[in-house]
Design a protein that fits this description.
- The chain is 47% helix and 15% strand.
- It is α/β, with parallel strands linked by helices.
- It has a domain at 343-489: Isoleucyl-tRNA Synthetase, Domain 1 (Orthogonal Bundle), CATH 1.10.730.10.
- The structure holds zinc ion (ZN).
- The site of zinc ion (ZN) has 6 residues, from loops.
Length: 521
Amino acid sequence: MNSFFLTTPIYYVNARPHLGHAYSTIVADSVVRFHKMLGDDTFFLTGTDEHGDKIVQAAEKGGRSPQKFVDEISARFQSLWAQLGIANDRFIRTTEPGHKRVVQTFLQRVHDAGDIYFGAFGGHYCYGCERFYTEKELENGLCPQHRTRPEFISEKNYFFRMSKYLPWLKSYVEEHEDFIRPRRYRAEALAMLEAGALEDLCISRPKTRLQWGIELPFDKDYVCYVWFDALINYISALGWPDDQNFARYWPGEHLVAKDILKPHAVFWPAMLKSAGLPVYGHLNVHGYWLVREAKMSKTLGNIIEPVEMSRRFGLSAFRYFLLREMRFGEDARFSEEALVKRINADLSNDLGNLFSRVLSMTAKYFGSRVPEPSVFLQEDEAIAELCLHSLQNFVRLFGGMRFDAALESLWETVRALNKYVDRQTPWMLYKQGDTARLATVMYVLLTAMRKTALCLWPIMPDASRQMLEQLGSPAVGNAPPVTALGEEGISFDGPSPGTIVAAASNLFPRIEMKKDTPQKT
Ligand SMILES: [Zn+2]
């Protein structure tokens, strides 16, 4: 059995969860479910990042203590994931005592390896980014992210000898083509690793300036830099160094948005190498959702509330849209119009219509029992072949994080099945009393529908479960409907003849959009 460990970023709790967080987590959930269907031993981790200046500031603004503040926001994330059908195995919080101990063990190990030194430091500090900028990195003296003037701070701090590991890391990335994927982010990471582009990493903050952090094990006057603490969550959640989960699941896979490429592509592998640990398997990087042509932000007022979307349009439809609409790695546009268009075209018109037609015909012609097929004609063989081929493509493409193409491949079959109904005209066969031919046509349809419904489980577990139950599969609860998805692409066998199927289906009702909804510009 292969093990498969996948993480989302741990989300910074200085603000409410939004569409970007929901996308990362829904993608991760779908990928883990896909691996469950391949029969892998999976572990799915998400959580919250709870230390640093920004948290203290946000807590003060809300008139709370940092602990009370992080408890509240972290709980909000956990309840959001429950509402979005996320089945994580572990939710880690960086304020857990267990995580703090692991960070200290890790720091001590890197210190013992001679990779931490104490030095004087002066730098341009952006409170928004919680990091120092070099003169070179500033744009007209301003933080390139926030367009604000950083404060010049000079103090003594601890440094991680990151530069020592950069030549190794650069050749590692060069030798492992898909270590960072898609390709454009690998290229970006390699550009960061160009000789001399990066300095050692400042990993401490004096307690005189910040107390909300994990104390350094070798100097009680300092706390750990929030990124150094946060990245370690990926192994502290597995109980490193002693727990057997670490041996069982590491190295794992990470999924992140493109704004946090650097800490994951540069800091983290160097940290792991220094601590004598194997690096992760892959870093999978996705783009942004643009709303009215801009990245979502509070100031622009274009924040999309994921729970509201799933309540209004259905969780399955919302999850489907996110995976279908964005090409993984690139930016995509979010709008309610686009969401409704996808629901009506793909889900209601193509998929829902197929289920509703075929089930009501099976009820009418065969008393809702799957009929025994007779001889397959050429057109039946063609559909069977197309269906198996699209299932194989789905497995290959989804496994390679190409969710849009994987779904498009499935929909080729869905659309072909609707055409097959129109061409085979079961209602005519029924009128003519050609029961043998009618039985074959209905059997082909029900079989192909079952294969399609199986593939949809990772993306929309609720709708997939309903479809499979309508097709007479026994209820499986939250377990994957099969644990050898690959084998489903080998033979065209469906629900056994005699199985009782549902008499009707109305999975994705059409949505009528109110016309001329005024748009803020
Ligand atoms: Zn900044």
